[in-house]
């Protein structure tokens, strides 16, 4: 078992998304996260899927998805060769006397305060999914009231293959 | 560009696709299109008695002809009755366009009368489907539907058309091109892969071709024959592949798998190189996958990349059209073999030894005893010997396996059976469809008594539509194959598998449905009655009462290794 991120370009047609989720359900593949939205081209959506499975299964998934009529392209996003981001909204318990401490903590991660209530505040954080995990862990002791994540989206890095040094920058 | 109704546009589209015949049943949501049929079309409509029948007829038509089969039904129950044929066509890669009426667009989503989400229901078993709510989409969708059904690995598609789209007007223009940017089945093969395959074959000592239904679907029978003959390659042929190369061919080693011969299973499992051609390592062939052909390298030819490496990893994958791939392979191989011939003499000697050692066998009945089902097959085989105009269809069960074992099929597309889904009731309607495709052929359905009762209403279709078929019922009075499992694996607890041989009276039932009915109780009458039915000149049913206790051997229990074969128990001598 290993993590795989797959980027799928699909025609924005009725039922296109259902065909993909149906394929996963029926063949017993487990989706960890799924994010879908428009691309630079009208009528075409990009889907970023995160699955935990074996090499054999990911190969099968790619081949099976290729056969869907609405699917234009399927590529696996390899960690070294792609950029991945995710957005999370996290509402944390924050009585007035803890607020400053929490906001300072958020600053370290570049988390913005999206809203403040009397006893809680909502952070908005964008980053690599692992950064979001780390931030979530950090604020957990303060009491996470609600949390929503978009699921990761990703793109292949532009241009020639990146050096490890460049990869480390992002 | 002609102004017309959507319903007429559907028919003009079918005509443009060269459709000769469609099989269906009308109802409210498809009525505008039936009204268009009344206005006139060159497409013949065959009125089935059940939409499942219509669907299997379209499959039988497609399987016998190689063309796309067309079935048409109304919304709701009409559409749901098509689900089994759609699933069957999906499993056996049969090109099918199913057209269903849908309720008015404005009613969709309201649980209107006879509204069902048929595109949703069929999602897991279609190549693609369309819900048409705008009349202007009809020509492009019909064009795309036929293209998707037949290109790449064939299979079923569904076009669900709202009633208002059938009733509205459009400017009709049938497109020349399909607009499907995401549909790109392979049209070429990788030359380097083919060369590597040729090299592996040239070096193999114990090669075996493992040919499946893809050979028939890929119209590659001639090319496969050329390959095996030019390199003297032995071949096993799956249930779905039967008739792809002649059964009488000396290089044909028969069928591997659960009820295949020990010979074919040994040939496949003890090979050092498997050349899979349009076959998919189905569990009924492999048995326990981890124990399957442990010493073999695998070359896998398939049009569907997703089949390659799905069950058994392929050392040399070759994705693309089989016709092209095999042609290239044969050319490469011929060049290589010119320098250095195949080193397979010992393997051929071994195969011939197994062939002699492990024929299909059964215990012949004593004079006056119950007819053995295998004798029915042998008799059918013998009285049709030398004819090239016979097409067989079957139901699912013991009789199907005996038909596979004993019938001799030398012409491509002459054996039509439900393999992947194993659908009881497939035989009779598939025979009607095959007859529609090949009116000059003699179409014989070998059916079980259980199967026959599932779709025998289509005899009326056969009789009234002048599509005469001959149905031979192997009437053992039981759901025989299930009984066999109960016998072997459930300590003879025969729960709910007894049908009786007497009810219904099949000959009378046949007569009631407009066919000729025959009954055979004794071996002495078997051949003459079968001949009489074949010569009746109309739809005929022969009820052959057989020995209910006969089991189908050999058998590899589900999940067992393919070489762990249960053979016929021989407590008695087997007379030759
Ligand atoms: C639609 C359907 N229902 C149930 C089964 C399970 N099944 C497989 S073979 C069989 C018995 C078939 O009986 P019959 O047609 O009399 O054939 P026989 O095995 O006796 O030759 C059954 C019930 C099936 N394959 N298809
Ligand atoms: Mg039976």
Automatic annotation (TrEMBL), chain A:
Biological processes annotated in GO: isoleucine biosynthetic process; L-valine biosynthetic process
ACT domain sequence ranges: 5-82
GO cellular component, one term: cytosol
CDD domains noted in UniProt: ACT_AHAS (cd04878)
One function term, GO molecular function aspect: acetolactate synthase activity
This protein's pathway: Amino-acid biosynthesis; L-isoleucine biosynthesis; L-isoleucine from 2-oxobutanoate: step 1/4; Amino-acid biosynthesis; L-valine biosynthesis; L-valine from pyruvate: step 1/4
Pfam family of the protein (one): ALS_ss_C
Secretion signal span: none
Record keywords: Amino-acid biosynthesis, Branched-chain amino acid biosynthesis
NCBIfam families associated with the record: acolac_sm, PRK11895.1
Family to which this protein belongs: Belongs to the acetolactate synthase small subunit family.
Full protein name: Unannotated protein
């Amino acid at each position: 078992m290993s993590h795989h991120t797959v980027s799928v370009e699909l025609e924005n047609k009725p039922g296109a998304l259902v065909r993909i989720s149906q394929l996963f359900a029926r063949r017993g593949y487990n989706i960890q996260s799924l994010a879908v939205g428009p691309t630079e081209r009208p009528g075409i959506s990009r889907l970023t899927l995160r699955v935990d499975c074996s090499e054999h299964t990911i190969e099968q998934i790619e081949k099976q998805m290729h056969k869907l009529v609405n699917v234009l392209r399927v590529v696996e996003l390899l960690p070294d060769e792609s950029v991945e981001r995710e957005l999370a909204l996290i509402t944390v318990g924050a009585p007035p006397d803890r607020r400053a401490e929490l906001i300072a903590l958020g600053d370290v991660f570049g988390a913005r305060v999206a809203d403040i209530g009397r006893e809680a505040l909502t952070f908005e954080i964008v980053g690599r999914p692992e950064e979001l995990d780390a931030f979530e862990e950090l604020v957990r002791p303060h009491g996470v009231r609600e949390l929503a994540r978009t699921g990761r989206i990703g793109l292949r890095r532009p241009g020639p293959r990146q050096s490890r040094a460049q990869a480390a920058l992002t | 560009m002609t102004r017309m109704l959507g319903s007429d546009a559907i028919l003009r589209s079918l005509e443009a696709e060269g459709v000769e015949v469609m099989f269906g049943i009308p109802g409210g949501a498809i009525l505008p299109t039936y009204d268009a049929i009344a206005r006139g079309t060159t497409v013949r409509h065959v009125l089935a008695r059940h939409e499942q029948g219509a669907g299997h007829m379209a499959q039988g038509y497609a399987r016998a002809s190689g063309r796309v089969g067309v079935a048409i039904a109304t919304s709701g129950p009409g559409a749901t009755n098509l689900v089994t044929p759609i699933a069957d066509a999906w499993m056996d890669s049969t090109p099918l366009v199913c057209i269903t009426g849908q309720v008015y667009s404005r009613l969709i989503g309201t649980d209107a009368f006879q509204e069902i989400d048929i595109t949703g229901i069929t999602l897991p078993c279609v190549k693609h489907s369309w819900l048409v709510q705008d009349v202007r989409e009809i020509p492009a969708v019909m064009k795309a539907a036929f293209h998707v059904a037949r290109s790449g690995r064939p299979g079923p598609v569904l076009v669900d058309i709202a009633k208002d789209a059938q009733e509205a007007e459009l400017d009709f223009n049938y497109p020349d091109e399909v607009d499907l940017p995401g549909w790109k089945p392979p049209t070429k093969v990788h030359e380097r892969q083919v060369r590597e395959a040729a090299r592996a074959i040239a070096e193999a000592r114990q090669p075996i071709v493992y040919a499946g239904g893809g050979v028939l679907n890929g119209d590659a029978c001639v090319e496969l024959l050329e390959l095996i003959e030019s390199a003297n390659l032995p071949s096993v042929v799956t249930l779905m592949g039967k008739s792809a190369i002649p059964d009488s061919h000396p290089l044909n080693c028969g069928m591997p798998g659960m009820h295949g011969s020990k010979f074919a299973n040994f040939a496949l499992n003890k090979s050092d190189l498997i050349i899979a051609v349009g076959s998919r390592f189905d569990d009924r062939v492999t048995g326990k996958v981890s124990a399957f052909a442990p010493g073999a390298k695998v070359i896998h030819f398939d049009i569907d990349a997703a089949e390659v490496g799905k069950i058994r990893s392929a050392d040399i994958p070759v994705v693309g059209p089989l016709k092209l791939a095999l042609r290239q392979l044969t050319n490469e191989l011929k060049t290589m073999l010119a320098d250095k011939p195949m080193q397979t003499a010992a393997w051929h000697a071994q195969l011939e030894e197994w062939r002699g050692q492990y024929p299909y066998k059964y215990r012949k009945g004593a004079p006056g005893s119950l007819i053995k089902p295998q004798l029915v097959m042998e008799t059918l085989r013998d009285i049709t010997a030398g004819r090239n105009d016979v097409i067989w269809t079957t139901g699912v069960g013991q009789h199907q396996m005996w038909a596979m074992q004993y019938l001799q099929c030398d012409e491509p597309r002459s054996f039509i059976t439900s393999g992947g889904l194993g659908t009881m009731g497939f035989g009779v309607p598939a025979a009607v469809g095959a007859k529609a495709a090949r009116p000059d052929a003699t179409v014989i359905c070998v059916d079980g008594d259980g199967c026959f009762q599932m779709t025998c209403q289509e005899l009326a279709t056969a009789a009234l539509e002048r599509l005469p078929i001959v149905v031979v019922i192997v009437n053992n009075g039981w759901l025989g194959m299930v009984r066999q499992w109960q016998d072997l694996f459930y300590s003879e607890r025969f729960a709910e598998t007894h049908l009786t041989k007497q009810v219904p009276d099949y000959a009378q039932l046949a007569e009631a449905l407009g066919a000729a009915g025959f009954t055979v109780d004794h071996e002495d009458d078997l051949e003459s009655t079968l001949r009489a039915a074949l010569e009746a000149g109309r739809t005929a049913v022969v009820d052959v009462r057989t020995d209910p206790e006969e089991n189908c051997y050999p058998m590899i229990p589900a999940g067992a290794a393919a070489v762990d074969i249960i053979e016929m128990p021989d407590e008695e001598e087997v007379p030759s």
